[in-house]
UniProtKB/TrEMBL annotation:
<feature type="domain" description="GmrSD restriction endonucleases C-terminal">
    <location>
        <begin position="364"/>
        <end position="479"/>
    </location>
</feature>
<dbReference type="InterPro" id="IPR011089">
    <property type="entry name" value="GmrSD_C"/>
</dbReference>
<feature type="domain" description="GmrSD restriction endonucleases N-terminal">
    <location>
        <begin position="2"/>
        <end position="167"/>
    </location>
</feature>
<dbReference type="Pfam" id="PF07510">
    <property type="entry name" value="GmrSD_C"/>
</dbReference>
<dbReference type="InterPro" id="IPR004919">
    <property type="entry name" value="GmrSD_N"/>
</dbReference>
<protein>
    <recommendedName>
        <fullName>DUF262 domain-containing protein</fullName>
    </recommendedName>
</protein>
<dbReference type="Pfam" id="PF03235">
    <property type="entry name" value="GmrSD_N"/>
</dbReference>
Length: 491
């Protein structure tokens, strides 16, 4: 269940101590050598001689070649140059040898006391849950014991538990192949996230629309059979292809990448679980994932934004659950959303009435503003490149700070205009810094250097000033464009 790394590290330290004592043995430290040897290897009952070919430590959680490296170190140490080291076992063993040499140089008469301290103070306590209980119950007991004793340490990772269940259900060459597969996943992927994607695929397939639960209760308690029979690894492979494959990424259309760009900007990342379930569904049914992808992304964008703007973002998860379960049940995506009603409704409170336009104009959060600006830009300029820069900044065309003799505005009215969406564009950070609080005519040369087409078009305007009427006109233009998009795709 746990302790492999610490136990292995302790054995490497003991082996380094034994090797050093063996080199410097003057006949007075044989008892110390024997005590360390008994920790490392089996001892012949007749001769009392250690058998280095039979170490106490045998790891079942590493691949064959790495296991052989560890066994070679425990048997005979290292007889190679440092440049030939290929594993952390060799590097760590060499580290211990170097530190022990340093300690001896500084404290030449107390090295044997250090060895005794390690022998007397380090206790390896094996806690095994056995008895007549089933293997599943014993694993459950082991987890309970670990969590009880581990109150001050890092919690056991969910995927470590899944790995243990999958590994224990395999044998021989299957175990070795699984370890290699798992190590490759650890190096290249975020395994926890792949399991979460798989969880939503399984929820979609099984028609589960209830609240999402943690990975451990979902896989370990509800779907442990997928771990024990190893079929979960096929699901993981599918999600790995979806999330990490450069081939899949490159086959997505330019338009699809634009809508991904908008979705990435939003607070909720639940669109990823719908997209992942859609990918898995197409794989399972032999359908072309890329053919309908643009429409799926546009509908997802529309619903997510309508619900976020109207302050119903807490219901977005339910939209995703409805969408992916309906996909597996009927073959088509049904968000069961009320987006069209939201677009036309009037919310009445004691103080005032709120329409969708009211909520739209009040949308001030940075992430939502960026998403709306990006969507407007891609709708207006379908040829706009994505990934222009890592993190585009929000540029205020009419500056936040202005001289009162430049334009006469009431402060409250001015702040509303300055922060309205019609006064904002996306701009690369270096250009945004250079544009700063300059006026429109001074900003235009900076806009002209931008890779954002909207900024380039602003730079081409003949006017020298950007005034309140310009802001109001652009706000109206953006609202009408986005509203038309929501009406068409929030279905």
């Amino acid at each position: 269940m746990d302790g492999q790394q610490r136990t292995t590290t302790l054995m490497l330290l003991l082996k380094a101590m034994h090797a050093k004592l063996l080199r410097e043995n003057n006949g007075k430290m044989q008892r110390l050598l024997d005590n360390i040897a008994s920790c490392l290897w089996e001892i012949d009952g007749v001769t009392g001689e250690p058998n280095p070919t039979k170490p106490h430590l045998i790891s079942h959680a590493i691949s064959g070649d790495k296991h052989q490296i560890l066994q070679n170190i425990l048997e005979k140490g290292l007889d190679q140059d440092e440049e030939q080291d290929s594993s952390n076992y060799e590097k760590n063993y060499r580290y211990f040898c170097a530190r022990l040499d340093e300690f001896t140089a500084e404290h030449p008469t107390t090295f044997h006391n250090l060895c005794l301290c390690v022998l007397h103070s380090c206790i390896v306590l094996s806690v095994e849950c056995g008895g007549s209980a089933s293997e599943d119950d014993r694993l459950e007991y082991a987890l309970r014991v670990f969590n009880t004793l581990n109150t001050r340490g890092l919690p056991l990772n969910d995927t470590d538990i899944f790995k243990s269940v999958i590994f224990s259900s395999r044998s021989g060459q299957e175990r070795e192949a699984f370890i290699e597969q798992w190590q490759e996943l650890e190096q290249e992927c975020e395994i926890d996230y792949l399991f979460r994607l798989c969880m939503h695929v399984l929820r979609a397939r099984n028609g589960e629309k209830s609240r999402e639960i943690g990975l451990r209760p979902f896989f370990y308690s509800k779907h442990r059979n997928l771990l024990k029979d190893g079929s979960i690894m096929q699901e993981i492979a599918t999600m790995r292809e979806y999330w990490y494959s450069s081939k899949v990424h490159s086959k997505r259309s330019h338009r699809a990448h634009q809508f991904y760009d908008v979705l990435w900007t939003l607070e909720s990342g639940y669109w990823q679980f719908l997209d992942g379930a859609y990918f898995a569904y197409c794989q399972q049914k032999g359908k072309d994932y890329f053919e309908g992808l643009e429409e799926v992304l546009m509908r997802t964008c529309a619903h997510f934004l309508v619900y976020t703007i109207s302050r119903h973002s807490g219901q977005i998860k339910d939209l995703v659950y409805n969408a992916y379960t309906s996909l597996y049940k009927t073959g088509s995506i049904d968000f069961k959303a009320e987006s069209q009603e939201i677009l036309q409704s009037v919310v009445t409170t004691q103080r005032s009435e709120y329409t969708f336009r009211t909520f739209f104009e009040a949308a001030q959060t940075k992430r939502l503003t960026k998403a709306l600006l990006a969507l407007n830009m891609y709708l207006k300029y379908p040829e706009q490149d994505t990934e222009v820069c890592d993190k585009p900044e929000i540029e205020h065309i009419f500056p936040k700070k202005w001289q009162t003799n430049y334009v006469k505005l009431d402060k409250k009215e001015a702040n509303a205009l300055v922060e309205s969406i019609g006064n904002k564009i996306l701009l690369e950070k270096p250009l945004n810094i250079k544009a700063s609080n300059g006026y429109f005519d001074a900003k235009k040369p900076k806009y002209a250097k931008s890779k954002f087409l909207e900024a380039q078009d602003l730079a081409k305007l003949p006017q020298s000033d950007w005034l309140p009427n310009d802001i109001k006109a652009r706000t109206e233009e953006i609202y009408q464009r986005l509203y038309a998009f929501f009406k068409e795709y929030a279905v």
